[in-house]
Amino acid sequence: MFQSVGDCLKLRTKSLFIDYTCSFWSILFPLILAILFSITIPKDDNKKFCPIKVSIVYSSKESKDLYTTMNLAKTSLGNPVFQVELCSEMIAKDKLSSGIIDVYIKKKNRCQIICNKENSLTNIVKTYVEWYEQTKGNSDLGLHMNYVMKECTEDSFYKNDAYFLSLLAMAAFLAFHWGIRITTDLEENQSKLGAHCRIIPVARRSLVLQNFLAVCMVELVANLMLDGFIILVRKLELLSVFPYILLVQMLTSLVGVLVGVLFGTIVNADLKTKQKWGERFGFFTGFLGGIVFYKVDVNLPILGKLNPVNVAADAMFHVYFIKDMKLYGRNIVILLCMVVILIVTEIRIVRRKIYARM
Asked: Cα–Cα distance between 114 and 95 in angstroms, integer?
């Protein structure tokens, strides 16, 4: 029995690899982007860390306390991490648009970090402010910031490498193409394979499990190929945290597959139409996930937490640059919650379809 299951799984995996559309978007497209990123995005090998220029909008005593605390932050060499000033919001906006400062902070219910685009320097400010709000300036803040000083403000820190972490996250989520494909294959009115599976004496649960395992194997190969390229060609030092990075990738791929399955179940269209909509959806999530802009996560943080690409990129950033397992674990929990919610939703929709046919 196990041999027959293994043979079916092997054949199903081969059939997925020869799906040229899904293979292109899930395997080749991320590699092409990685090559383009490597050519166009320089690696700052010899660039020294400079203080991050921050303006704080003065609104209350809490703003002045944050200003004082950020002024005291030092690197391991004793140099200041931030170049901070207090000013009005209008002046801060003008300086940000002119490129005089990297980011400005304004206080409402919580601190808001405003910047022109995503980069690792603004992520350092975001992380610092998050820790400041959680610890309220106690000794834990200094302990956390030791990681930032060591990993993010020394000569070994390459701010452009953060784009490759976003690429890893987006590439993993592109697994939703496989979810669309396997859902269509199991529908007898949408594909010849589905019609064939309908009449052969094979349990539907067994078919679903084989498709799921086959997709996991394909995604594992795709993620390892992209990781290998980034490690060997871009020279990112991912090996020290590779198990954590791979865990994020596989969880994001799982979320992507489940999103594709949900999309394929809800939308009544042929495979090509579903794939076209899937391509647009992939670009949209990658756009919101930080490949291009950072403003969405700053102005609409709830939308950032709902976007798997953004959550995965955030987890990789914290484990690779900052070595903060607490924030990394929080993002892992968010991805796991997405998996559970998608599975429950899919089961409910399938049950309703079954009852409707009765």
From this structure: 12
SS3 of residue 202 by DSSP: coil
CA 145 to chain centre: 23
What local confidence, expressed as pLDDT, does residue 286 receive?
63
Q: How confident is the prediction for the chain on average, in pLDDT?
A: 76
For residue 242, is pLDDT > 90?
A: yes
Cα gap 207→213, rounded to integer Å: 10
- Which fold, 52-152? D-Maltodextrin-Binding Protein; domain 2 (3.40.190)
Q: Which of 262, 245, 247, 260 is nearest to 215 (CA)?
A: 260
Does residue 227 carry a pLDDT above 90?
Answer: yes
Residue with tokens 């190929």: 225
Residue 196, pLDDT above cutoff 70: no
Tokens of 289: 């996930």
How many Cβ atoms sit within 10 Å of the Cβ of residue 101?
23
Compute how many other C-beta atoms are within 10 angstroms of the C-beta atom of residue 57: 21
Q: Report whether 307 contacts 288 (CB < 8 A).
A: yes
Structure tokens at 53: 């220029």
Reply yes or no on whether the pLDDT at 22 is more than 70: yes
The better pLDDT of the pair 200, 231 is held by 231
**Residue 148's closest CA among 84, 76, 239?**
76
303 CB-near residues (< 8 Å, 6+ apart)? 288, 296, 297
Residue 221, classified by CB atoms within 10 Å of its CB into exposed (0-12), middle (13-18) or buried (19+), is: middle
CATH 3.40.190 in the chain is located at 52-152
Residue 24, number of CB atoms within 10 A of its CB: 12
- Residue 77 clears pLDDT 50, i.e. is over it: yes
Q: Which pTM value belongs to this model?
A: 0.69
